[in-house]
Specification:
The complex is a heterotrimer of chains A (about 325), B (about 230) and C (about 375). By secondary structure, chain A is mainly α. Helix content of chain A is about 70%, strand content about 0%. The radius of gyration of chain A is 21 Å and the shape is flat. Chains B and C meet through helix 1 and helix 2 of B and helix 1, helix 9 and helix 10 of C. The structure holds adenosine-5'-triphosphate (ATP) and magnesium ion.
Chain lengths: ~325, ~230, ~375
């Protein structure tokens, strides 16, 4: 167990998120069981008021989840000096078997949380709580994931022992290693850059279309998710090397360090925000079937699409600027 | 403009202290007119006002506002309706102590999208119309009873509501101030507003500006109204 | 824009209602800021100590060999240096002379090291030595040698303070003066510095030395750095665990304040709801209230902690965290500003504060709108 202040902060945040999610899911379950919109009873009024509590709790929990993803990356990065062989977060995460599963679960939870908030927002715009069932059933599924995340974090913190010898980005993300990430990492620069341009072009075009017409939400969602993966792979393949000005250095974590002006934070922040907005446009499609939402959903889809266009556009500009200012020439 | 159909309100239902405050009340409030709810203490006047003013939901029955059913709307929509359609003058006035007269007047306009300059201008104009301009920046607890009530009326009018709801407005006023209040009521009616007043004060229900009187007794309408 | 305007108006209203209840909110902000101050002081201080240590160690050799006898550090014969030199991968080996000198006048322990570049009879001293003995360049410093006689040194230089911890207690003399002063036999050194050329091979070389010269102890710098890091992390971690109690006490206080709304505050929220504010508007107002309180407390707490640690030398708990020799009363941590620490403090104070106030705030915001009709 490493008693690092940042780790304590992370544990506190994670426990708070888990508690809020648990509370929200518990309230959600009660609401689902006794919900009766036709009744003028005081109980129904109490339940309706509780929905605002659930919304508030989860808005906080999910906002925190987003922030804590970055705190997690930052803490993992700053712990690297305590492990033999670790030069950045890559090595620290590798120092325990739970490190990478935890990171992936956290990323998934952020995407899930963002989508839930979008659905919740749609629900509060209508006069008859049309999505209440869908919303709280999803919550009952999501809460265990958030709790699992807290548990994994506790295990991760507990398993970290100073002097553990770990391997870091140099070997984890290079073509010489047999690890899965190792094999994924060095996609050849040129093809990967082309895939990147095609994927971002497609998502921007789909976003523009949905923005203007409120149609094609599902396509936009799929393309957003694809772009998410493609951008992550591109960071491994060529964005990282451009930033480090080293064709052989493929680490996705060193970007978070001071030497590189903490550029990883805006980069990943934009990526997650853009992906969530793009996915929102698709997740809202089934909601259009509800009569009370028919007039509301297209407007929300257009806002989501507009946000995704702006955010993916900024992401593209950021990456372009990184490439343009780099002294490295790969392509 | 407001219609109640078979409305019943039961407090503390299925508990020992269950109390039926309104029983099967059906009634329509005429638009651009002054309606007075009259009845002894405990007859359900305030309860009826809260239902008409979108502050509470009936236990059963329906409430329609300009033909639209608002009975089972979520609270956040009721708040929107309250804010944009109704102005309230409470029996205890309920001004917020420590704030100035003008700040009190602006409170219902805070959650709207109007610009600050425009609501401020409107607030000052209303205070001028109520003849309390000179006390604009005075804290409300330093105002006299009559001044405070006129500030409360200005607050009710800040969002330019269709209807003004007043509960026992003359209970704390002497005869002269009560008559002045009825003049303000006449002026509001002149502006095309609907007024709903709960009162057992003859100065109110016998006033010539009143168009309809609804007598309540034990949660029911007592007799045909005139 | 309309949305921003609305937020601004709610913020305005919040500020004026906070000011109307100065006493209650002032007490909350004070306790809040105190909690943040304690936490931030510990974190700032721990981090600056850690940096001091890494500055010291950055100049330290990557591999040092000491001779041990009966579990204690012994003088190492020059012949050992030749043996080490013959190991593959070793580029050079240098014997090093250093030691401690107890100064009865100031009651302090000084560290004496040697340098070939100085002249016999002269000495360079750290700022701590200079200030306790009130010395300047060209002054003469008499020191009592091992044999009981007094040796006179001329102060040639007062070392600059890049790192206060590193050089405050330092004295630098020539090897010849050193041997004479401590009466150290020729052919022996305090320890050996090994240069391997490639730092990655340090641990392999260290292993070989341990096998070839079983009575020695090789010390790898990376190893020391990690131990330091772990110790500092653990120390400040333990202090943090203690501080957690302070944070929890504050949270209970904050929760109590948020739950126990006065009748007046409840009436006010009731009025707002009655005249057309929605639950979400009240929640938003309360959100701004929490933000104003948190930001005020956070700025005050961290600014005070910064001043305390970096300007006042962490006078409140220096004795608890440090424990070095008496020479360091003038220890001034080098100011560092680390965004990660600010974020950490935020997560350990503001986030829990929000968490404990969510439910009470919601309760307050869901007062029946018709409640004020019946007062
Ligand atoms: N929240 C409540 N819980 C229980 N009973 C209530 C509640 N509110 C009102 N009542 C009861 O309902 C009845 C009608 O109350 P209401 O306030 O509507 O009467 P009213 O006609 O306005 O009387 P008054 O002239 O005294 O203001 C009263 O007997 C009152 O005690
Ligand atoms: Mg009454």
């Amino acid at each position: 167990m490493i008693l690092h202040p940042g780790m304590l902060a992370l544990l506190a945040a994670s426990l708070i998120i888990a508690a809020m999610a648990l509370g929200g899911a518990g309230l959600g379950y009660q609401i689902l069981r006794r919900w009766d919109p036709t009744s003028g009873s005081e109980l129904q009024l109490i339940l309706e008021r509780r929905t605002t509590l659930v919304s508030t709790l989860l808005a906080w929990a999910f906002g925190l989840e987003f922030l804590s993803l970055f705190l997690f990356a930052g803490v993992a990065d700053s712990l690297h000096s305590q492990f033999v062989g670790a030069m950045c977060a890559a090595g620290v995460l590798n120092a325990s078997a739970t490190g990478y599963p935890l990171l992936i679960l956290k990323m998934a939870n952020v995407l899930l949380a963002g989508s839930w908030l979008i659905v919740n927002h749609a629900d509060t715009r209508a006069t008859d709580y049309p999505l209440i069932r869908a919303k709280y059933v999803t919550l009952l599924v999501a809460a265990p994931l958030l709790i699992a995340e807290a548990v994994l974090l506790v295990l991760f913190a507990g398993a970290l022992k100073p002097h553990v010898i770990t391997s870091c980005c140099g070997s984890l993300f290079s073509s010489q290693t047999e690890t899965m990430v190792g094999e994924m990492a060095p996609f050849p620069f040129r093809p990967m850059a082309i895939v990147f341009l095609v994927s971002l072009g497609a998502v921007l075009a789909a976003g523009w279309h949905t923005w203007k017409t409120a149609k094609g939400g599902i396509l936009l969602a799929l393309l957003s998710f694809a772009a998410f993966i493609v951008v992550l792979a591109s960071i491994l393949s060529w964005v990282g090397p451009y930033v480090y000005e080293l064709p052989t250095h493929h680490c996705p974590f060193c970007l978070l360090q001071r030497e590189y002006h903490f550029i990883g934070y805006p980069l990943y922040g934009l990526l997650f925000a853009a992906t969530v907005s793009g996915m929102g446009a698709g997740i809202l499609v089934p909601a259009k079937r509800k009569p009370s939402l028919k007039m509301i959903v297209p407007g929300l889809q257009r806002s989501c699409a507009a946000a995704s266009v702006v955010l993916y556009g900024l992401l593209f500009l950021l990456i372009a600027a990184l490439v343009a200012t780099s002294n490295l020439k790969l392509l | 403009m407001i219609e109640l159909r078979d409305v019943t309100k039961i407090y503390n239902r299925s508990r020992a202290n269950e109390f039926v405050a309104l029983r099967n009340v059906s009634f329509g409030v005429p638009e651009r007119a002054v309606t007075v709810l009259k009845g002894p203490s405990g007859s359900g006047k305030t309860t009826l006002l809260t239902l008409m003013g979108a502050m509470a939901r009936p236990t059963s029955g329906r409430v329609l506002l300009s033909g639209r059913e608002i009975t089972s709307l979520p609270e956040r929509f009721l708040a929107g309706i309250r804010r944009s359609t109704f102005g309230f003058v409470f029996q205890q006035l309920n001004l917020i102590r420590g704030l100035s007269a003008l700040e009190n007047v602006l409170i219902p306009a805070y959650p709207t999208d109007a610009s600050y300059a425009s609501i401020r201008g409107r607030g000052r104009e209303l205070l001028a119309r109520m003849n309390v301009s000179h006390r604009e920046h005075e804290r409300v607890e330093r105002l006299s009873g009559g001044e405070a009530q006129r500030v409360a009326i200005a607050r009710a009018l800040i969002n330019d509501p269709q209807a003004v709801i007043a509960d026992e407005p003359t209970a704390h006023l002497d005869t002269k101030l009560s008559r002045e209040f009825m003049e303000i009521v006449a002026a509001m009616k002149q502006d095309g507003r609907t007024l709903i007043i709960a009162s057992h004060d003859p100065i109110v229900y016998e006033s010539p500006v009143v168009d309809a009187v609804l007598p309540l007794r034990d949660g029911m309408i007592a007799e045909e109204h005139r | 824009m309309a949305l921003l305007e609305r937020q601004r108006r709610l913020l305005d209203f919040t500020l004026s209602s906070l000011l109307r209840r100065k006493g209650k909110n002032g007490a909350l902000v004070a306790v809040y800021a105190l909690t943040i101050f304690l936490l931030a002081s510990v974190l700032f201080f721990g981090e600056s100590l850690r940096r001091e240590a890494s500055i010291i160690l950055a100049d330290a050799p990557s591999l040092v060999v000491q001779r041990m006898m009966a579990g204690r550090h012994e003088l190492i014969p020059d012949s050992y240096a030749d043996q080490v030199r013959s190991i593959r991968g070793v580029r050079s080996v240098k014997p090093r002379l250093w030691g401690y000198y107890y100064d009865p006048l100031s009651g302090a322990n000084y560290t004496i090291v040697t340098s070939e570049e100085r002249k016999n009879g002269t000495i360079a001293i750290g700022s701590g030595v200079a200030s306790t003995r009130k010395l300047a360049v060209d002054d003469v410093l008499p020191l009592r040698a091992s044999k009981g006689d007094t040796m006179l040194f001329t102060v040639a230089e007062v070392l600059s303070e890049e790192s206060a911890l590193a050089s405050a207690d330092l004295m630098i003399v020539t090897p010849a003066d050193f041997r004479e002063f401590f009466a150290m036999p020729a052919g022996f050194a305090t320890d050996l510095i090994v240069d391997s050329g490639n730092p990655r091979e340090c641990s392999t070389i260290a292993e070989k030395i341990a096998i070839r010269l079983p009575d020695t102890r090789p010390i790898v710098r990376e190893e020391i750095l990690r131990t330091y890091d772990a110790i500092f992390g653990l120390r400040s971690g333990m202090v943090l665990a203690v501080l957690a109690c302070a944070v929890i006490a504050f949270l209970i206080f904050a929760w109590d304040k948020a739950t126990g709304l006065s009748a007046e505050e409840r009436a006010e929220i009731g009025i707002l709801k009655a005249v057309g504010w929605d639950t979400s508007d009240v929640l938003l107002m309360k959100f701004w209230e929490g933000t104003v309180i948190s930001v005020t407390a956070f700025l005050a707490g961290t600014a005070l902690a910064y001043a305390h640690v970096f300007l006042a030398g962490a006078s409140l708990f220096e004795p608890a965290l440090k424990g070095w020799s008496v020479i360091y009363p003038a220890f001034r941590p080098t100011p560092v500003f680390d965004p990660a620490q600010i974020v950490t403090i935020f997560f350990l104070t503001v986030v829990p504060y929000i968490a404990v106030t969510v439910v009470p705030v919601w309760r307050a915001a869901t007062i029946d709108p018709d409640a004020v009709m019946r007062t």
